[in-house]
Amino acid sequence: MLIDTHCHLDAAEFNADRNDIALLALQQGVSNIVIPAVARNNFDTVIQICQQHKHCVYALGIHPMYVDDATLDDLETLKTYIVENNPVAIGEIGLDYFVTNYKNNPDHIEKQIHFFTEQLKIAKQHNLPVILHVRNAIDDILKYLRRYQLNGGIAHAFNGSFQQAEQLIALGFKLGFGGAMTYSRALKIRALASKLPLESIVLETDSPDIPPAWIGTEGRNTPLELSKIAQVLADLRQVNVAQVLDITSANALKVLPKLADLCTPPQVLL
Questions:
Q1: DSSP-based three-state secondary structure for 104
Q2: pTM listed for this prediction
Q3: How far is CA 177 from CA 96, 135, 148, 211, in A?
Q4: pLDDT (tens digit, 9 = 90+) per residue, 203-228?
Q5: Is residue 63 marked as binding?
Q6: CATH class of the structural domain 2-262
Q7: Is 13 annotated among the ligand-binding residues?
Q8: 92 is in an annotated binding site
Q9: Which residue ranges make up each domain of the chain?
Q10: Which residues, including other chains, have CB under 8 Å from residue 106's CB and lie 6 or more apart?
């Protein structure tokens, strides 16, 4: 069983072959795909994709890199969508201090923090996990997670320290690993993937972004690469890939409890 816990199948890069990719992924053993929204204007899109492809499920949230175009009304819309729909998580939400330097643009960072904390409150109110974007901002992320005491979630594309990883795990979070782990020069990420408890790891592609080494940094990533990504993790840990598949899938189902209820069992079409 393979679960892609982070895939932007709604992205424009999939406009020409989205349905084919979704079907091929299922045929190749990717039993479930989690599609996180990034802004109010794609809530309906991710829901519609998941209605069409029953092995896909969605999360709803406002991404930190999209807050400049967001309004407070979008938070109210998010609350309404959660009540009327059934997302597996709130996401993709978080903080990003990589693109926007904290000191150079404090107004933007203040808005990021406002949207992040308001969405943490929404997640807590509805007893939902969160899917986190944590780029260059893990310490602040941890501060707010401790403040609001959620039911865990996934730290997507984790690239922090072992100490930060341990703190996230203690708060009930799993850590997402994908294409970045496949590059031999990514020593830090590969060390994390090798040494962290396998029970703390989930697999992801972040398609169409973060393509694995065999595609190259300019290529398009897709859920079709997930099985090879899983093999890389198995090789790094020197274990059988079947063990990686079993444990990472169980991890995803544990941290996203609605996933098992919303998704159909994997079916391979002949």
A1: coil
A2: 0.95
A3: 18, 14, 25, 12
A4: 999 999 999 999 999 999 999 999 99
A5: no
A6: alpha beta
A7: no
A8: yes
A9: 2-262
A10: none
